[in-house]
Amino acid sequence: MPKIALIINPWITDFKLYDEWMHPVGLYFLISLLRHNGFETHFFDCVQRPSTSPSKKFGVGAIDHREFQKPGLYRPIKRKYKLYGRPQAALESFLSSIPKPDIVFFGSGMTYWFLGLLETVRVVSEKFPDVPISIGGVSAKLMPRTIKAYLPDAHIFEGSLFDDASLESSAIPYISELKTEEWDRSFLGGLQSISFAHHGPALSSLGCPLSCTYCASRKLQKEFIPRDPRLVAREIEYFQSHFNAMDFAFYDDALLFKPERYFMPLADAILSGGIKARFHTPNGMHARWLDDNVLSRMATLGFCTLRFGYESGDDRFMGDINGKISQHELREKTRMLFGHGFSSSNIGVYVMAGLIGQNPDDVMDDISFIASLKVKAKPVFFSPVPNTKLFDRYLSRYPLLKTDPLFHNDSFFTAQLPGWDFDAMQSIVDYAKKLNSELD
Asked: What is 254-293 written as a DSSP string?
């Protein structure tokens, strides 16, 4: 008899959440590996939008939610705190429809979403109280001790499915027995568990060659690992043929790194496969790596939503953002984008708020500069990420960062900084919206 594994993408608790091409890609890989090893798998995505959920432009849309008890830390925030995802009754019905599993695997996302994880574990554990559980994913790697404190009976997986050594040394039931020989390291084998998709993910590489002080990519994936372009094209084709998906978001941290070596072969694989799709880059790309060949291929492929990391043009913060791109360079790259047929509605540039020593006026200046280029400014508020250099620098002033993941929430943390409050954060949002609306 094959072993039975239940895989769960948990609910999310936050003040805001929107399905902007969300997929639990890590769990797709896990399901694929488990099936490769002969497991019978059952998958439930708590935040999946149902097929009846209306989609806006490019397949995105609102996620179902219900109000959730707001933690005391968040009382100053004048917004409702919510649990996002499918109704509890849907999860309970699913659990009643499957055989008792031998093990339950939970994914995890942002650290400050952990109350949603706890709520999901509670419901599943009530149905299967004596079944071992394992928690992996972003939060499991970034704050394993915190999760263990709340879920003492859980097994925490801090390794990588792409690292045979971490699999072999794991004390989690069944994990050390998984074999990766002849596994194609694709999530194709896990997609049979999906019942519906409004859109699809695309992942051409794992990890990032850069080391920005606010980013944990190097902790989550130690090495930059490119994937076989033909395999990526096959994964895209699967979503099209099975779900009629037309919109795909790249999940790469460094999509354009060494483009002649990586991106251009990927583009060739997609084009040679006859794939007609719309592509989006919500993770943000490095504009510095753009050139005419890359932009020409993007236009041919059907890239529609182009997002770029800029963060700040102030010299004081260049060390924290790895000197991502200067104002002069960004101005030149923007001209190139327009020259290849992309418009203001296609292009967005991320501006970060909450860097050490940064004040609201600094962020307003960056937004004004981005707007002067006739592209949209996308302000993002700083979320302190464990195991990053910037997190450690903030830790001496805010010790709760180490013990309370709720303190990491981007809707909360920036307001605690000197010179900031919730009104200042809202002013930045409103200012960006005003300038962006003038480009529509």
From this structure: STTSSTTTTHHHHHHHHHHTT---EEE-TT-B-GGG--HH
- Of 178, 197, 216, the residue at which a domain comes to its end is 197
- Kindly state whether residue 157 falls inside one of the protein's structural domains: yes
Rounded Cα distance between 230 and 376, Å, is: 33
How far, in Å, CA of 381 to CA of 409, rounded? 9
In a domain, 154, yes or no: yes
Q: Per-residue pLDDT averaged across 193-200, rounded?
A: 92
Domain boundary among 197, 221, 251: 197
What percent of the chain is modeled with pLDDT above 90?
A: 91
> Looking at residues 37-45, what average pLDDT do you find?
98
Q: Indicate whether 141 and 238 sit together in one domain.
A: no
Q: Name the residue with tokens 């600094």.
A: 362
Instruction: Please provide the DSSP assignment of 106-136 as one string.
Output: E----GGGHHHHHHHHHHHHHHSTTS-EEE-
Q: In this model, does residue 323 exceed pLDDT 70?
A: no
291 and 337 in contact (C-beta within 8 Å)? no
Dist CA 313 CA 328 (whole Å)? 10
Sign (positive or negative) of CA dihedral 70, 84, 208, 258: negative
The answer on 227 and 359 residing in a single domain is: yes
Mean pLDDT of 8-27: 97
Same domain, 77 and 176: yes
DSSP bridge pairs for 156: 135
DSSP 3-state assignment of 381? Answer: strand
What mean pLDDT, rounded, does the chain reach?
95
User: How many domains are there within the chain?
Assistant: 2
pLDDT of residue 121 exceeding 90? yes
- Give mean pLDDT, residues 279-300: 96
Predicted TM-score of the model (pTM): 0.96
For residues 218 and 145, state if they share a domain: no
E strands of 300-387, at which residues? 303-311, 347-353, 376-381
**59: how many CB neighbours lie within 10 A of its CB?**
21
At 218, is the pLDDT very low, low, confident or very high (cuts 50, 70, 90)? confident
Look at residue 202 and tell me if it is in a domain.
no
| Helix pair 229-243, 263-272: axis angle to 10 deg | 40
Supply the range of the domain harboring residue 224.
Answer: 208-440
Would you call 248 helix, strand, or coil by DSSP? strand
Does the pLDDT value for residue 321 go beyond 80?
Answer: no
Query: Is residue 317 over pLDDT 80?
Result: no
How far from 403 is each of 112, 400, 408, CA to CA, in Å? 11, 5, 10
